[in-house]
Amino acid sequence: MKKAVVLLSGGLDSTTTLAIARGNGFACYALSVDYGQRHAAELAAATRIGQLLQVCEHQFLKLDLTVLASSALTDPSVTVPIHGTNRGIPATYVPARNTIMLSLALAWAEVLGSQDIFIGVTAVDYSGYPDCRPDYIDAFEKMANLATKAGREGNLLKVHAPLINLPKHDIIRRGLELGIDYSMTVSCYQADASGWACGQCDACHIRRAGFAAANIPDPTYYQDKR
Amino acid sequence: MKKAVVLLSGGLDSTTTLAIARGNGFACYALSVDYGQRHAAELAAATRIGQLLQVCEHQFLKLDLTVLASSALTDPSVTVPIHGTNRGIPATYVPARNTIMLSLALAWAEVLGSQDIFIGVTAVDYSGYPDCRPDYIDAFEKMANLATKAGREGNLLKVHAPLINLPKHDIIRRGLELGIDYSMTVSCYQADASGWACGQCDACHIRRAGFAAANIPDPTYYQDKR
What we know:
2 copies of one chain form a homodimer. Chain A has helices at 12-23, 40-52, 97-112, 134-147, 149-152, 168-177, 202-214, and strands spanning 3-7, 27-34, 57-62, 116-118, 158-160. By secondary structure, chain A is α/β, with parallel strands linked by helices.
């Protein structure tokens, strides 16, 4: 079995990505990065998902970006924006987040002798994020193949972004086909300690709209449905 | 004054790079990454150098790569190779190290509104490292400009690698012109707690040979000269 490093946040997209990697026959090594998020609920969800989907190994890397960054996701003094109030690049954007996470995945892939990295970015719902677009993923892959022993020796690394062109409702349908229980995942930017979602932030809005568009009951634990 | 993020390990190359950035008129923000190195001497040197060269701000980021990697620099069970015993890519290679460090510099540059990152890689002395070559630096820069808000908006980021084509003796001459006291820097892979260099590892060998080739007395504190 070929090994793959899968970036796993515990949200809907990365969980579906892990299920896809597994469904494609890869031995999956999950990597979760705690870059100073405000909610432990996300990492708790990642732990659950790693166990449920039986990854070969699950590593958690702590990297406190709060000393560098001051975005809504890492700085408690900044309010998470309510959906619809921001334009362009969201205020919840963490600088260079995907570049940092892919770099860490690259390091582990090299150690494992893996040539495959999976990341659950999607260009459709999060079009405001520059590092979720196909040209970015291609550029990272090119750089990575010049950065490593393996790439230089012709064992080319592939960055898989299987959701990149899928709208949320198609991601949800794909995940349900693969047997995912989405009530176990947490997408919310400000979930409470038990993993209940706020129902108000951009991530909650996109998730709710996705289940509605897929015409599938939304199993998410929302605080306003408690 | 334009701001620059400068990656600073406290070794000869990164210290010279910082002096060059400063000499070019940049307001310098030093970033040191503790990726699980075995010696605290390197970080102590970085602290000293940051103070001596009067950086605007100096951030230390802790990132324990030892959970992922098992190279000589991070795994205490692996012996640091004595110079001349290894071929091709050195055993002291840390997977994706420069990619990770440049990614963190990219994050800080974006937060600071800086379009300039300095890194002290050199393709001459460390030709075994894939991520020290010009084509790698170019590829990182291309990727970075697709990864960030600033790059997408046309405010292009530049990755400066001013030493990349210089042999060690030219780096040393350049640094002395800029007033660097190289006795304050630590290059050794296994310096002791006080910063005394082993004199035996690849880094020590290259450093010693550099001073010899420059025909300049080597001010390094070597354990075998104690």
